[in-house]
Amino acid sequence: MDVQTTFLDRLFQSGLLIDTGVDGLYGRSGQFEDVIAAFERLIDKFGGADGAEAMRFPPGMNRAFFEKSGYMKSFPQLAGTVHSFCGSELDHINLLQCMEVGDDWTKDQQATDIVLTPAACYPLYPTIARRGKLPMSGGLFDLQSYCFRHEPSQDPARQQLFRMREYICMGTEQHVTDFRQSWMDRGIEMMKAVGLDVTIDVANDPFFGRAGKMLANNQRDQNLKFELLIPITSVAKPTACMSFNYHQDAFGAKWDLYLEDGSVAHTACVGFGLERIALALFHHHGLEVKHWPSKVRQALWG
Ligand code: 5GP
Ligand code: ZN
Fold first, then answer.
1. Does residue 242 line the site of ligand 1, with CB under 6 A?
2. Which of 162, 138, 140 is nearest to 150 (CA)?
């Protein structure tokens, strides 16, 4: 049994995570949720004074926006689409017969207008574009969503449905790169406050295929993505618990996000992996919250 399975088993045994029979799809206990809620309040403490506009979208997004985003070009292996039965009564009888004999009943399911949200910020760009030009002072948004990525794994830090809290900044290059830098500094400070040792490193997204290798190299060479790493299931390969992404003007150009002077807006987003942060806390301080260091409890529950 490897180290990852052991931690997952301990999480199941303690009831913090609830086994559903599918790798990477778990229920969470009230205690686990309380840690996430407390950490989100800490995020509010650090970011609240910035005056971001809060929005919450459901974990599914408009398929047309998803198609336009280009997600299928870069990450087809991760996407999840929502399909439904749209047939006649006869089709229904056939479907039930298929299920009865253990055949594939899903092959005639039809695509709906909804796909599962792959990152919390995806529904935001078309929403803001619809409002017209952004003021020269830019825009700042606060989002949180369950996100889906099809990557089943027994590493509890790799889940298929997990929550991402994000701040998204739109504005000039200087504005959004300053925003990203300030959250890298805050990220380190926040994790220190809850007793977690972190490193920050340049990173890349898992772009699909051979062409994707070039995209990944380009992203790294240009320092477009940084991650805040915390050892959870492996010290040698610490887990990305926050990411700091600078999109240059790529999303601005794709979604027609303009500043008042007519220039294309630059964008950046900062994401907190909420389950990963909770898991890092449980891994580091133990599965019993009441035994966590008082300094950590104070930072989280005041
Ligand atoms: P990114 O869009 O940079 O891949 O992800 C943003 C953040 O979401 C990451 O920094 C990480 O904390 C979290 N995240 C990414 N993938 C997973 C995953 O498979 N499981 C969990 N629990 N969190 C993830
Ligand atoms: Zn984002």
1. yes
2. 162
Q: Which-ligand-closest: CA of 242?
A: 1
The structure tokens listed for 169 are 């900044």
How do strand 139-148 and strand 81-84 relate by DSSP bridges?
A: unpaired
Output the residue whose Cα is nearest ligand 1's atom 18. Answer: 158
In this structure, which amino acid lies at residue 44?
D
Place of tokens 């449905």: 161
Low-confidence ranges of the chain (pLDDT < 70): 1-5
Q: Is 47 in the pocket of ligand 1 (CB under 6 A)?
A: no
Q: For 283, phi and psi rounded to 5 degrees?
A: -65, -40
The confidence score (pLDDT) of residue 4 equals: 56
Ligand 1: distance of its center to the CA of 153 in Å? 13
pLDDT tens column, 209-257:
999 999 999 999 999 999 999 999 889 999 999 999 999 999 999 999 9
Residue 277 burial by Cβ neighbours in a 10 Å radius (0-12, 13-18, 19+): buried
Q: What is the domain partition of the chain in residue ranges?
A: 3-80+118-301, 85-114
Q: State the distance from the centre of ligand 1 to the C-alpha of 106, rounded, in angstroms.
A: 29
Nearest Cα to Cα of residue 272 among 183, 159, 177 = 183
Amino acid at 169: C
Atom in ligand 1 nearest the alpha carbon of residue 242: 10
* 118 CB near ligand 1 (under 6 Å): no
CATH of domain 3-80+118-301: 3.30.930.10
In angstroms, the CA 86 to CA 63 distance is 17
Q: What is the identity of the amino acid at 270?
A: V
The answer to whether 274 and 164 have CB atoms below 8 angstroms apart is yes
Q: How far is CA 107 from the centre of its chain?
A: 29
What is the rounded distance in angstroms from the CA atom of residue 203 to the CA atom of residue 226?
Answer: 5
Task: DSSP letter for 23, please.
Answer: T
